[in-house]
Write a structure and sequence with these properties.
single chain, 581 residues, alpha+beta, eight-stranded mixed β-sheet, six-stranded mixed β-sheet, 34 strands, 12% helix, rod-shaped
Length: 581
């Protein structure tokens, strides 16, 4: 036995404090004591342990036998070694190492290391599931790995007579991923199969090639670079700062598609293709080209400014998304260079050029330019404005409105004409000019020459003018004349004139005057030809009636001279008679 905690001699009293401490020491010793028998006490035997007690030991040596719940442990372990693994219900914990082949659902695995066979009766359940709780290994539930050699880890998918492999790229230093057709193990094929899809380390995807030249490289039968569609990044396109994606490689650079389909995007409310940026800089603009709501189509600058809009009815809007006619241009002009604008022919609102109706409100106001057939080959160009009398049609030239049509009146130089033809001349002597079409510089002008003086002149200055007194005058200033000779012998010819009354053939109106053919032999200077011809083909003659006044003065003057001489002779005769009395 161990030495006592508190040594004492016979007859020594036990103090209370010693007694209490001894109880504490005994209790602690019992709690920490491990019973081993021998010197420490009698070994356990028979039923010395209560059946409901818990026993914790580090080692059990059974020289005869070890029985647990009437089962001989040695016998049971020997049986399990022969069976390898046999479980019915329940769960198995701990590590399991299998050094041979395993069959699940089959009596033997054959050549497979692990053979899982589903039940013969279909129950729509998978034959094998590897399940994880999602809290570790980054969600990895299954690892297929090669640790040596040149073959990549692979998995074979067999559907009827076709094999597909999901595998790592073959090669001692290869790091790619492939989906290959055919191949496999000795039972279903041989080898790595034909690569159909290849993903290089870094993410480049090849279809029909194991060496993709861009992020997506699709190869089809062909030659000279026309056998591929390659998606890669380049600094040749874009704004010079960001890497942009290009489609095409080699001789097939660019996009070549047959019937491409750009689908509708709900958020953008369009199905469009974007081009840009302009100039290859970040500040450059881009264009969206595609369909819009209500079956429309547009070209949009920077994604929002619709420069051109085409409706489902076929109307084209430039500067507007609501074109009301076939071509609706707003916010700018329209220029045609090297061609012509050819509107439809006809005299209706659907023909020619129509301007927006009712721009000032109201109703019925319209303006148009039309060209139409009047009859046969006769056509008319009609420029019009409707429907109020004070709606005017103006013609602008060099900073001002030069001609205006309003209320049925035509104004030249005036924007509110008050008569059928209202002319406001811009300067003295600049009124109406009628030009001789045969040339030679001949013309006739009607104009105001001074305030209150209206003139009717030929280009040579011959003509008449009227002052505000209403009388017609002719220029007669001596400075304008030469070779001035007084007329003689007028009286006899003048009195030979035959004044007549007559009726005009054209309308039967009666009048009075002279006959040009009768006057011409007497005074040919006041008879002229008008340029028109009569029924007999001869030129029609006319008279300068105002010249008759000059002839009358000359005749009266001659008559006065005649009578003055006679009166003078009579006076001399009377004087002689009176002197002879």
């Amino acid at each position: 036995m161990s030495d006592p905690f508190y040594p004492a001699k016979s007859g020594d009293p036990i103090l209370a404090d010693t007694w209490n401490n001894m109880q504490i020491k005994v209790r602690d010793e019992i709690r920490s004591h491990t019973h081993r028998g021998a010197d420490d006490g009698k070994q356990l035997d028979g039923d010395s342990i209560v059946p409901t007690a818990s026993l914790k030991v580090n080692r059990v040596d059974a020289s005869v036998a070890l029985t647990v719940k009437s089962i001989d442990v040695l016998t049971r372990l020997t049986e399990l070694g022969a069976q390898k693994l046999s479980l019915t219900g329940g769960a198995m914990t701990g590590a399991l190492s299998v050094n041979s082949s395993v069959a699940v659902g089959a009596s033997a695995p054959g050549t497979k290391r692990l053979l899982v066979v589903q039940p013969g009766t279909p129950d729509n359940n998978a034959g094998l599931e590897v399940r994880g709780n999602g809290d570790h290994s980054w969600g990895v539930n299954l690892v297929l790995r090669t640790v040596a050699g040149v073959d990549g880890a692979s998995m074979l998918l067999r559907s009827r007579s076709k094999s597909w492999q999901v595998r790592g790229e073959t090669g001692a230093a290869a790091t790619g991923f492939q989906i290959t057709e055919d191949g496999g193990d000795v039972e279903y094929g041989s080898g790595a199969g034909t690569p159909r899809l290849h993903i290089k380390s870094g993410g480049a995807v090849g279809i029909g090639t194991t060496d993709p030249q861009g992020m997506l490289d699709v190869r089809v039968p062909g030659a000279n670079g026309w056998d591929r569609l390659t998606v890669t990044t380049t600094a040749d396109w874009g704004d010079g700062t960001l890497q942009y994606v290009t489609i095409g490689a080699g001789g097939a650079s660019g996009i070549m598609m047959s019937n491409p389909h750009v689908v509708w995007h709900k958020g953008a409310q369009s199905a469009a293709i974007r081009y840009g940026r302009s100039g290859g800089v970040q500040a450059g603009a881009f264009w969206d080209v595609g369909t819009r709501p209500n079956n429309a189509f547009s070209l949009a600058l920077n994604g929002g400014n619709h420069a051109l809009w085409l409706t489902q009815e076929g109307n084209i809007g430039i500067g507007t998304t609501a074109p009301a006619v076939r071509l609706d241009v707003q916010g700018g002009g329209l220029r045609v260079n090297g061609g012509a604008i050819t509107p439809s022919v006809g005299n209706s609102p659907s023909a020619g050029i129509m301007f927006p109706t009712d721009p000032g409100g109201g109703s019925g106001d319209a303006a148009f330019i039309r060209y139409y057939v009047v009859g046969g080959e006769a056509c008319k160009l009609l420029i019009g404005i409707d429907n109020d009398g004070d709606d005017s049609l103006g013609f602008w030239q060099t900073g001002g409105e030069r001609m205006t049509v309003m209320n049925g009146n035509v104004g030249i130089g005036v924007m509110n004409p008050l008569t059928a033809l209202h002319i406001n001349q811009r300067a003295w002597s600049q009124g109406i000019r009628i030009q001789d079409y045969t040339g030679g510089g001949r013309y006739f002008g009607i104009h105001y020459d001074n305030p209150g003086v209206i003139c009717l002149y030929h280009q040579n200055g011959s003509g008449q003018y009227m002052k505000e007194d209403g009388l017609w005058n002719r220029n007669s200033d001596v400075s304008l004349k030469e070779n001035i000779v007084e007329m003689q012998g007028v009286l006899e010819r003048f009195v030979a004139l035959r004044p007549v009354t007559f009726d005009w053939k054209v309308d039967g109106l009666p009048t009075l005057g002279l006959v040009a053919q009768e006057v011409e032999p007497l005074f040919p200077d006041i008879v002229s030809e008008s340029g028109k011809r009569g029924e007999d083909g001869r030129p029609l003659k006319g008279l300068a009636y105002e010249a008759l006044g000059v002839l009358a003065v000359a005749a009266i003057k001659e008559l006065k001279q005649h009578y003055d001489a006679r009166i003078e002779a009579l006076e001399r005769q009377l004087q002689r008679q009176e002197s002879n009395r």
